[in-house]
């Protein structure tokens, strides 16, 4: 367990909170706007965030170029937008490979309520068992299948991730989520979801999630999906909100 604590300490700050940049979208979306020059985006965001969620080829390309204080979260699964079922993510890596890249954690994305649920439950359970042998933290990205962000299903995702043995659960924020989080004994962090209409909407979302007991955020399009100066301003503001408890 010491290894898990030490590795999570590279991701979470001492205040128990975390600001993560989710940069794993290239596998699913290709050359999505805002991530065309991914290595440059990483260079910019590494000045603000605590950790990055990235795919293995990106970890290899970075080499030693990521500052030592920024945690690396190795994304284990994915699928492209051209799939008949874009929720049917497939394993693209494994625990041993993540360790060889010196990742600080692995993450697995899954969706409940769809035809892929049973297989994904089996896969993530095996991953958690394998990772526990090496004290490697597992972050489960757990979401409802489909476009609807149903609070009951999100609550189930949180409980599911904890009971499966995840060290961290990432899912959507909803008003009232504090009534669920208080019973769960691992950190729960808010996913950004679809791009919001304006930067201030993102800031308000982050504040709301923190006020309801979430331990931080992992943002993708709502972080890097703007012009570079706006990205820097959003990142600076969110970092301040999260780590100075400015809510």
Please provide a written account of the structure.
By secondary structure, the protein is of the alpha/beta class. The chain has a single domain (2-243), classed as Aldolase class I (TIM Barrel, Alpha-Beta Barrel), CATH 3.20.20. The protein is globular and about 45 Å long. Helices cover 40% and strands 18% of the residues. The model has no long low-confidence stretch (mean pLDDT 96). The longest helix has 17 residues, at 117-133. The chain has helices spanning 2-8, 26-29, 38-45, 56-62, 95-100, 117-133, 151-164, 178-181, 199-211, 221-224, 228-243, and strands at residues 18-22, 51-54, 71-75, 77-78, 90-91, 105-112, 138-144, 168-171, 188-191, 216-219.
Which consecutive residue ranges, at least 5 long each, have pLDDT under 50? none
- The string of secondary-structure elements, in order, is HEHHEHEEEHEHEHEHEHEHH
**Any idea what the CATH architecture is?**
Alpha-Beta Barrel
Averaging pLDDT over every residue, what do you get? 96
Question: What's the Cα radius of gyration?
Answer: 16 Å
Gap between N and C termini: 32 Å
Q: What is the helix content?
A: 40-55%
